[in-house]
């Protein structure tokens, strides 16, 4: 079985978008560290934590020696990556697993170590390409798309669907975001122009 190590941001995104059950249908084992689980506990992410209890997300504790290696990894990666995030990269290397992270610096460090790395939006690609999101109609579940669009907006990424089949995910500013409708057509929001005062030119 192919396995993936995920950081807190990705697990939270799956929770917010309601995609955990669909993600598990891909047959990819999901792993993370006890430090990441601690973040979820501190943030009160009850739904995500339920998948730890069911065993669908496997938690890995790290020994003192391994924590020292994570600390060294944190210094090497730089200040842009937190200690807990570096623990996920360490685990991906240890398990020879892919790394799914929302942290750009962490993904870069993973590539330098020949780890297969992906961002959050890769998950949506996999769900669409594998037709996990497709029902009787060829269109994906629009309720999920709406939730995912909100996540993309938070990450400064534009979510556009032009054909109702596969979303087109392109980097952009959120103010140019195109909403998704059941017809699959994007409707562009134009910026509101300020009205001039009557006495101004």
Overall description:
This protein is an alpha/beta fold and 201 residues long. It contains nine helices and seven strands. The chain folds into two domains: 118 residues, 5'-nuclease (Rossmann fold, 3-Layer(aba) Sandwich), CATH 3.40.50; 56 residues, no CATH class. α6 runs parallel beside α7. The longest helix has 14 residues.
Provide the fold topology:
Layout: E1 3-6, H1 8-17, H2 20-24, E2 29-33, H3 34-42, H4 46-53, E3 57-60, H5 64-77, H6 83-95, E4 98-100, H7 104-112, E5 117-118, H8 120-129, H9 142-154, E6 157-160, E7 168-171
Parallel strand pairs: 1-2, 1-4, 2-3, 4-5
Antiparallel strand pairs: 6-7
Secondary-structure-derived class: alpha/beta
β-strand amount: 5-15%
**Terminus-to-terminus distance:** 68 Å
The value of Rg in angstroms is 20 Å
| Helical amount | 40-55%
SSE arrangement, N to C: EHHEHHEHHEHEHHEE
> How many beta-strand runs?
7
What is the CATH architecture term of the largest domain?
A: 3-Layer(aba) Sandwich
CATH topology of the largest domain: Rossmann fold
